[in-house]
Amino acid sequence: MNRGINENVSYKGRVFHVQTEERGRDRRALVCTLFYGGVILSEERLAYEDADASPGRFQEMLRRLHNKMIENLVSGLYDDKIKAFPVAEEVSEYDPIEVLFRTHLLPSLSSELNTDLSERDVQSIAERIPLMKGASEKDRFLLLCAEIYSRVKDRCDSEAFKHLVKRWSSELRFRPDTPSDGPE
């Protein structure tokens, strides 16, 4: 995936993740995915031709597809699907590791390794996150990655997963060995 937009959207007291990306220049398709709690609620695709791929035109198509998904969400189009998720699945405002897990790591795992976790796995990992409190943010992140890997190791290449974890960690800024006990 080369170019795209990632955005968290609040709707009816819940946080959704909208990810719109190019599938690769050889595939000539844009894909917009709506996630809730790491689970795909909807996906839209848009094929395009070389003539459409000028930078300005490409960004316009990307933004239009992304905004349409958000419009569909806030207009209630996915409300029936959303009702299937208990409110307990909601992202904790106070735990940055859980927010990271649900809004960044799960969508990235899906888009970059083509590996999705079952709802049961997502819930199981989310239940373990509070047990990691007291460790530094970096250690909690590494424990979380180990939890994820234990569930996907048979479905993805270990080197690809390791590379993804390195990229994730390079995108984060950890405070040096500060225990994480909740909100500051």
Describe the structure.
The chain is α+β, with helices and mostly antiparallel strands. The protein has 2 domains: 80 residues, no CATH class; 81 residues. The protein is 45% helix and 18% strand. The protein contains 6 helices and 4 strands. A 4-stranded antiparallel β-sheet has the order 1-2-3-4, with helices on both faces. The radius of gyration is 17 Å and the shape is globular. It starts with a strand and ends in a 13-residue tail after the last helix. The C terminus is likely disordered.
Low-pLDDT stretches are 88-93, 175-184
The total tally of domains equals 2
Main beta-sheet annotation: 4 strands, antiparallel
Shape, please?
A: globular
Let me know the number of strands.
4
What is the number of helical segments per DSSP (H or I, 4+ residues)? 6
Mean pLDDT: 80
Strand content: 15-25%
Kindly report the spatial arrangement of strands forming the biggest sheet: 1-2-3-4
Could you state the order of secondary-structure elements as H and E?
Answer: EEEEHHHHHH
Helix content bin: 40-55%
Taking all Cα atoms into account, the compactness measure Rg is 17 Å
Please give the alpha-carbon distance between the first and last residues.
Answer: 36 Å
Characterize the quaternary organization of these chains.
single chain
